[in-house]
Amino acid sequence: xxxxxRRLLVTSAAGAAGFALAPAWAAPPLKEKATYKVGFAQTESxxxxxxxxxxxxxxxxxxxxYQLVYTDAAGxxxxxxxxxxxxxxxxxxxxxxxxxxxxxxVPVIKAAAKAGIPVFLIDRxxxxxxxxxxxxxxxxxxxxxxxxxxxxxxxxAKAVDGKAKIIELEGTTGSSPANDRKKGFDEAIxxxxxxxxxxxxxxxxxxxxGRQVAETLLQAHPDATAIYAHNDEMALGAIAALEAAGKKPxxxxxxxxxxxxxxxxxxxxxxxxxxxxECNPRFGPKxxxxxxxxxxxxxxxxxxxxxxxxxxxxxxKEVLASAF
Length: 324
Ligand code: GZL
What we know:
By secondary structure, the protein is α/β, with parallel strands linked by helices. The protein has helices at 48-64, 77-90, 106-114, 145-159, 176-188, 207-220, 232-244, 262-269, 284-295, 316-319; strands spanning 2-3, 8-11, 17-20, 37-42, 67-72, 94-97, 119-122, 139-142, 164-170, 195-202, 226-229, 254-259, 275-278, 303-305, 310-312. The chain folds into two domains: 5-27 and 34-142 and 282-306, Response regulator (Rossmann fold, 3-Layer(aba) Sandwich); 145-279, Rossmann fold, CATH 3.40.50. It has a six-stranded parallel sheet with strand order 5-4-6-7-8-14, sandwiched between helices. Helix 1 (48-64) links the parallel strand 4 and strand 5. The site of beta-D-galactofuranose (GZL) has 15 residues, from helix 1 and strand 12.
């Protein structure tokens, strides 16, 4: 029995070869070529993290001499799906995709596979009950978001001696980072009975939305002593909301976050942000090297983890220059 890339080739006892639909199809192959036309369907460009990711992908494509078909979905999963469809129609060789939310992009991921175009998920994953790595797409390259939430929870517990009334600012509803950063943090704080979540609401990973939501929740919960933001942009929005309310961030209310953007590292130095777990947006080199390994026939694991650094007052000064 020979398992080709596309299907199981079953040879019967009589030696006649017949093609049986494999129980699970493999992701489409990618021919080794001197150059490629590759799609990158970005979710939006409203924050330094996404801008840094785009810059990294464009720089690596340029360095390799590949043609990059870039689209920006301006915060709409529906538009991101139609952007992927247009890449399929253009006949790109491969697609890099950060699914804005974990379900709406599944149909177009499958459509790309059906069209023989391998999809590499970067930075955000899909719902594995709907699409599988190694079959519908090649792999997911990204941070472990559950771990990020756990690391921030542990840091906060230590900083507040296990006692905090927490407002949680969630990322984009339905996105894998928001789902898992919530799962990791909310589960972890159960170890400390003195840490409770007063309210949890999405700020869509955006600074101004994060500020608005923080303002509303702080008015509803004046007894809050900590804010956990799923990304730095919302944490910086929350810091602005605290100051507008005459509260001292880092003193009256401890703010903790994820990403590691420059403004957040500066806020740590200024004593306004307690910590941020890095989530490196510079995907270019690893994304393209994974694609080339795949084309060369190397086996690609279903998940390729990005390791995250962690920043607080002990190291913020030394990392500020290299922060995105
Ligand atoms: C994480 C990425 C998240 C960042 C946000 O991989 O999807 O999206 O944490 C960004 O800043 O908007």
